[in-house]
Amino acid sequence: MAYDIIVIGTGPGGYVCAVKAAQLGLQVAVVEKRATYGGTCLNVGCIPSKALLHASEMYHAAHHLDGLGIEIGEARLNLDKMMAHKDATVKSNVDGVAYLFKKNKIDTFQGTGRVVSAGKVSVTAEDGSAQELEAKAIVIATGSDVAGIPGVQVDIDEEVIVSSTGGIALKQVPGHMVVVGGGVIGLELGSVWARLGAKVTVVEYLDSILGGMDGEVSKQFQRMLAKQGLTFNLGAKVTGVTRTESGANVTFEPVKGGEAQTITADIVLVATGRKPYTAGLGLEEAGVALDNRGRIEIDNHFQTNVPGIFAIGDVVKGPMLAHKAEDEGVALAEILAGQRGHVNYDVIPGVVYTQPEVASVGKTEEELKAQGIAYKVGKFPFSANGRARAMLATDGFVKILADAETDRLLGGHIIGFGAGEMIHEIATVMEFGGSSEDLGRTCHAHPTMSEAVKEAALATFFKPIHM
Ligand code: NAI
Predict the structure, then answer these.
(1) Is 113 annotated as a binding residue?
(2) pLDDT band per the 50, 70, 90 thresholds, residue 256
């Protein structure tokens, strides 16, 4: 049978594309080499890490309830049970995708998919048996893989030297964890293990953590994490990671020159980025062009240079974020069904799920300066928000950026409890081309943390009430 669409890879990009296309009446098949659906995100990424982030936050909070008048004695950690919660969370999510495939009458093929040519995909099962499928459109949604440390030979054994995959499955809390890379993965997983009792040292090449984030947010975030016990070596380039009998040695040197130093670790988490996963897909033979960073090149409709072959998600340009891949999956399904699919790349929120959370959408101040755009800033701290005081969640602030002349919202940045939820109201107003005045004049329920967003918007176009 010839399908309308075959999707290779069932991560957030691939499975959402398949479901949307089926909803629009197309005949869809998916090819997945893992035993379960959902890709990196559901199996070993976003979802399990959030289970551990939440559980470790609760463990940490249980030690700090005095301020609310709750005395519970010492909370004890049962890591096996915490991991079982994580595994159960993964199972319910990957089972959910299998249910969606069934409900939408999507055919599933277990095995490694390879593009034979436009219109033809071969699927090789684990036992070596192969079959060929045909489709009008092939969608490559194979995601990304751990990039390793650029220029450094590291043997990631997932036991002592781990990527995020091993980092969410440690058998015990390490005495000392060294995190290579102060990006999203390093800080999320670093804070999980710090909360569970590990000493955590982050070694980061740049002068700031979360490179690319708004500078003010990044600075305050680093101070908060340092208060939680994380140690930072910034402007430090890791040049070697080697196994020892009892753990590993990590060597790094100041980027601006100086003495190299070596520290010992029980566990080294390598979190220095991810790379597009295109190996074994037959792209070269099919004539599909890659760019100089190994990403599949696509046009504005997600089509590669070979008609009928499309690509979305981490394997193409843009931020490696599950929700960006999902939106591309929806847009592509709509295009393939004859509709007008579209992704607004200017309004893609980013969230770091630490405690407090860090969330942003749109431009940072640094970007606006670099682009010569005149802007206004409005800020409001959670310390002046009644609900935050009631919850002892006064750390952090909301920052809104708007065009100096038109007041159109250009960006929003939040550090604080629940930032990852609050960011969406800023995103929604931005999606509609709204202004800081629109946001500031929208009635917000009292008392809520979200009132800080409203106040920051008021501060952007005039003055906040509570400051
Ligand atoms: P990242 O790109 O966020 O951070 C990697 C960091 O490693 C950078 O700050 C870089 O300067 C540093 N680095 C590189 N080489 C180094 C060296 N030799 N020595 C010291 N530092 C070095 O990558 P990360 O954290 O691995 O995440 C990978 C991808 O997964 C990202 O695209 C991220 O957006 C995505 N992700 C998103 C999450 C979220 O949205 N909450 C959660 C986890 C991952």
Answers:
(1) yes
(2) very high
